[in-house]
Amino acid sequence: MKPEDIVHAIASNGQAERFANITAEILRHELPRRLLVGYVDRLINQRLEKPHRFDGRRPARVTQDRAYIARAIVHSMDRAVGRGCVSKAITRGVLRGLVMNGFMRGERRATWERFRQEHDGYSPPSFLVIAPDKLCNLRCKGCYASSGADSEKLDWEVFDRIITEAQTLWGMGFFVLTGGEPLAYRSQGKDVLDAAAKHRDAFFLMYTNGTLIDERMAARLAEVGNLTPAISVEGFEERTDARRGKGVFRRILRAMANLREAGVPFGISLTATCENCEEILSDEFLDFFFGEQGAIYGWIFQYMPIGRGFTLDLLPTPEQRVWMWERTWQVVREKKYFLADFWNLGTCSDGCLSAGRQGGYLYFDWNGKVMPCVFVPYSPININDAYREGKTLNDILQEPFFKAIREWQHAYGYAATRPEEHRNWLMPCIIRDHHRDFRRILEMTEPDPEDEAALQALLDPAYRDGLIRYDEAVARALDPLWEREYLGREGRELALDS
């Protein structure tokens, strides 16, 4: 019997809860967990040793990159469970969700195929990012969302409908919450934890400043069981407080202590600039948060010049981006920390994920504006208007702005069928790494700026020209690296040796 057949049998017989309870108890014991991790390691090693056998469309090193990050995920989860950082309730909830999603994946196949037939072979996105509110209790320097004491928010009915519709139309099981501060959201007496509790067959990741996670909130997160917070830090105390406010770093550590006590798995979210990239990738910093504090995962977002007080001066230099690529993969391979930089690890996502690409996502803000990406503040449509006009998420996908970006993604390498056809996935971002192409799409489709800061960036020729010059400098640094490591002699020898 195949694994998917076992999952189907368990779920269809209503045994998902019992399976989750039993498996959660087993995984808390060292020996069976070691056996499971060893088995997964052997499967991953096959991809490391013979990458060309698993994906002949991609460069061999791309397959290896994905194997290394998969191994880091497994070992990060193993460390967390072994240290007691994940409660039995959370483990049961995750396993129950995996079983039900595995079961529903089979049930959704007909839906996916119907969608593909209706949309010329295109499959729907895999997740959504939703910012239900703009309100935030902090005033961080350079906030990409310009958040603060603003009252804009999605009505509960719209927030809930977006999630429900994504599940029923697209079979979606993963949602990302951001803001503003998601934990500050209130509508009709409901908050983001109520959304997670209602949709227990989905899993939620929430970007948060962490300062609202007291003991009571940590207990609620543990009870809900299908939401993990990613807490923003800028470095150690001096750098974090300099951007986020005096005392914030210590409040973050208290939040992490509350989460550990409640057994809620959490991660960290890092904004890398030319000023802090060495600090946040240092052994001292990573061992402190992944080791002492118990973070399970980390997301690195290289600084994007949008939002409050945007500037090109904080962008990591081309030389720093090369160093960050080398250092991040060293951490993933040697420390087995699940640390993902959405730029330098673009090989793990087939490049840019925006605009509703297959395997990618769309972004909905607090006013209902739909955008290709959190960091692309231009919107062709508002979900509130779309719903009033009787439209659905399927109609949103057909907006010319989103379709034009997807066409660019396909031409850049996503649709490639041979390794040598891929362009440089170490420069995956259309708005920051390929600003000239992005401007062409903006002029062609004319989406609305999200806010005043987005409008200023659009109208500023120094901003446009500065980003284009930056892209050219980054290409001079990273194109030879891509050619050598992924497409050139080393990459070909890797495939032949395998």
Would you write up a description of this structure?
This protein has 498 residues and is of the alpha/beta class. 53% of the residues lie in helices and 10% in strands. The chain contains 20 helices and twelve strands. The strands form two sheets. Strands 7-6-5-4-3-2-1-8-9-11 form a ten-stranded mixed sheet. Helix 6 links the parallel strand 1 and strand 2. Helix 2 crosses helix 5. The longest helix has 31 residues. The two termini are 30 Å apart. The N terminus is likely disordered.
- Strand percentage: 5-15%
> Describe the biggest sheet?
10 strands, mixed
First CA to last CA: what distance?
Answer: 30 Å
Structural class determined from secondary elements: alpha/beta
- Regions with pLDDT < 50 over 5+ consecutive residues? 1-13
Q: Level of helix content? A: 40-55%
Shape: globular
Order of strands across the main sheet: 7-6-5-4-3-2-1-8-9-11
What does the radius of gyration come to?
A: 22 Å
Number of helices: 20
Number of strands: 12
Mean pLDDT: 87
